[in-house]
Amino acid sequence: MGLGGKAEEIETGVKEYQQLRMLKNPIKGIYLMLFLMVTLVIIFGAIWVAVYLARGITGPIQLLVEGTRKVAAGDLGFHLDVKADDEIGMLGGVVQQDDRGLGKGKAELTQANQELQALQRGSWTGVGITWRRSLRRSPRVCCRWMPMGA
Fold it and tell me: How far apart are CA 43 and CA 23, in angstroms?
């Protein structure tokens, strides 16, 4: 290979370099656009996952808030349906159990209040059964309400 062959080789290399140099900016733009698209997909994916997780947490908490508002309003007969397998679900179960206990306690207090009102009015009908049942539980409390001559 002579000097002319080397000159042609160099000239061919220079032409290829100039062609590649002209394609440098479009290729750089394509890579930048690809990078930006992948970045946007990752950002939107992260936002979607965050919203999904937030709904999974706030949904049961909103149900618990609604349930406690109903309890505060006096509605003890509602059903709290929290579908979660974590601490929020356990808390929902405890709240539901407490509401049932409150309902049972309210019914017992209402019945005891009616019995006490009947005693105050002097209506002694049907009270003997209640006294006997109550005397087995706590004689001190019942003795305070018994009339002296009975």
Answer: 30
Which of 49, 51, 55, 56 lies closest to 84 in space, CA to CA? 56
Token representation of residue 52: 């999904």
Gap between the Cα atoms of 47 and 90, Å rounded: 28
pLDDT digits (tens, 9 = 90+) for 52-94: 999 888 888 888 888 888 877 877 777 777 777 777 778 877 7
| CB-CB contact of 89 with 98 (8 Å) | no
Cα atoms in the Cβ-side hemisphere of radius 13 Å centred on 75: 9
Every domain of the chain and the residues it spans: 3-123
Q: What does 76-99 look like in DSSP terms, one character per residue?
A: ---------SSHHHHHHHHHHHHH
Q: What is the pLDDT of residues 103-125, one digit of tens each?
A: 788 888 889 888 888 888 775 55
